[in-house]
Structure formats: C-alpha cells, structure tokens
Design a protein that fits this description.
By secondary structure, the chain is of the alpha+beta class. The chain has twelve helices and five strands. InterPro entries: HATPase_C_sf (IPR036890), Sensor_HK_TwoCompSys (IPR050482), Sig_transdc_His_kin_sub3_dim/P (IPR011712).
Length: 420
Amino acid sequence: MRAVRTALFGRRARRRWIHLILGGALAMPYVFVGSVIIGPLIGDDHVLGSLTAQLSSFAVGLPLAAVTALFPLTRPMSVAAVRALCGVPDDALAEGPARSRAARGRTAAWFALHLGFGGVISGMSLALPPFAAVLIALPFFSALRDSRLGMPAAFGEPWVLALSPLIGVASLVALAACAAVAGGLLAHWAPRLLGPTPADRLADAERRAADLAVRNRLARELHDSVGHALSAVTLQASAARRVLDQDPEFVREALAAIEDTTRRTVGELDAVLGVLREADGARSTAPAPSLAADLDGLLRRTRAGGLRVSATVGMDPAALPPLVSREAYRIVQEALSNALRHGGDSCVTLRITPAGPDLTVTAENPLPAHSPATRPGGGHGLRGIADRARLLGGAAEAGPAAGVWRLTVRLPLMPPKGHA
C-alpha cells in the first residue's frame, strides 16, 4: 500500500505531474491556433464551448507544435525540464541543440508527446478535482442535491448518494494514476528521444579530448618552467651557502642568478596561466620563452647553479620557426633541469644542430655514481619532452649509453599543419 501511495503521490510523481502541467500550458497557444482553423470548418464561433471542437483543436495544434519543435532551442529547453522534473539521469540526455535531421525529428516527436500528454492531464486536473469535491460533499449538503448541477437523475437515488464519496475519491485516485502513468512513460521515452546521438557523442568526445589536451599542455608548461626554476634556485642557493665566506664574488653572482631566475619564472608562470585566461577571452601578453630570445640566459643561469655546460649551437636560433624555437627551448630547459637534479656538479654537453629537414637536440651528462639514473615515480619531464616532440611530428629517445645519460630529440623544422 505504501508503494502504491508513493508511486501515485510521492515526490517524483508530483514533479512529473508538474512537468505534464507545464506541457499543457505550452500546448494552449497551439490549441488556440487550432480553434481558429476548426471554427470555420464546423461553423461555430464558440469552439471552446464544445468538447468535440476542443478535441479537434487539440488534434490540429499538436502537429503545429511538432513543426515548431524543429527550432534549435527546443531540445535544450526540453532537456532542462526533463532533468529538473522527471528524474532522468543527466548522462542519458543530450547537451545543446539537435545537430542532425534524425535528432531534430526525435525532438519534434518528444515535444508533441509532451504537449499531448500534458494537455490531457492538465484538462483532467482542471475538471476532475471540482467534480470529485462535489461528489464527496453531495450526501452531506442538500443544496447540492437540489441544484443537481447538471448531474444525471441517477445521482438522486439513495444508493448512488451513498457511493458518491467513494466515486469522488476514486476519480481523484484515477487522476493521480493517469498522471503517474503518463509521467512514467515520458520519463521512459526521454532518453530515446532526447538522448545523445552518435554526432552528439562524437562532439562530446572531441570536447573532452580538447580539455585533456589543454590540461596536459598546462602540466608540461608548469613542470618545465616552474620545476626548472625551483631546481636551479635550490642549487644556486646551496652553492652560495657553501662558499659564503670564501668567495663573496661567486655568492653575488649566485644571488643575481636567483633574482633573474625567479623574475623570469614569474613571467613564464603568467604566460602559462594565460592559457586558462584564454577560455574567458583574456590572453596573457607575456611572451613564451624561446631559443632565439633566451638560450644564452638559460645557459648562464644554469651555470650559476654550479653545473658546467658545454653548448654547441650549429645555427642562428633566430632563424628557427617560432613554434620549433619555443618547444626546443622547453626541451633544453628540461634536459638541463634533469642534469641539475641528478648529475650534481658534473658537466653537460649540449648540441643543437640542424640535420636535414630536422633540428636535433642532444644532451649528455655522466651517470651518477651512487644514484639511479631515473627517480622512482619520476619521469614526468621525459614524458613531457616526448609529448612535445610527438606533437611536432618528431621523436625523442633517452637512456644510458656508454657511461653517460643521453637525450636525443628530433624536431621537424616544418611542423605539421594545425600546430601553432
């Protein structure tokens, strides 16, 4: 009994009832248009006074509603109402306007069903409660019996009067049952008619892929810029502390390098966060670092941390394409950062040379004597380098070779179209 009461009058049933009433309200303009068409056909100017004329107007209005449902905003409006009132899971419904002819057709069918069921239930909701109230009160008020209110003569019989309250209550229960069934049918059909089509699923997958690409790009940029700066500043401060009393000139150089590194990193961080601001229409004005703009500065700041860097550059960095110059800078930065973290004060040999249609970046440093070549749980920087190279159509290799740790990256000087 409790399950029946919940099914007919529970919170979900009441919300679906409201959804049906909303459909009835939306149906009214189409019914009025239908009455304008039906009136001349039946020769009656008072269409709304005849039940048959009303039903005919309703039948004419529903196809008109289906036609107007082809407008783009119909599906988002219907989906919002279903989510709020019908208890349908969010992932079972599509986002945005219908993109295909089939999706628009299903939206039109849904809109007609919603307005059709809603119009019937709304009419019953307006007519049955007053009728049921009269039936329930009929045995107890003689004025109601005397007025008859257009009721059949049988309602004057004693046995009918005795049953009229039960009939009134039964009519209210029947109304609730009709509303529950109609609401349940709409909730059952909603995923089929308003659910995502293959085109919607493809568009959603593309959005997720784009979001993931932005997140990966942010992760790489933060790892390379901020991670390198923190490693460099830590080693520079450590080196300055060790020789604080013996070599004041080196300490001054280290402090200057720390100041320069942190200042540049703040600018780079602003550029990275500008990727987030682009979603709001605001772009950062801080330029991304590149080999052409800052290779010498990167080498100078790295050497100030105690790492000996032997660099060979086989071309003018300013002649590189901007995209290749930016990505190569980050790759060199990560290679030097790894050497700072794991190589101590060893020497790094860096070569940046053209090789046919590619730019080759090679970094070598001696393997540490007492520490692993890779950190447990680490390797994010190497993955970032590989990602950068792959996105430009190149490749990256890293690993121990003949007593040294060697990183070799190949970047096409003409990246694939679509990268910027």
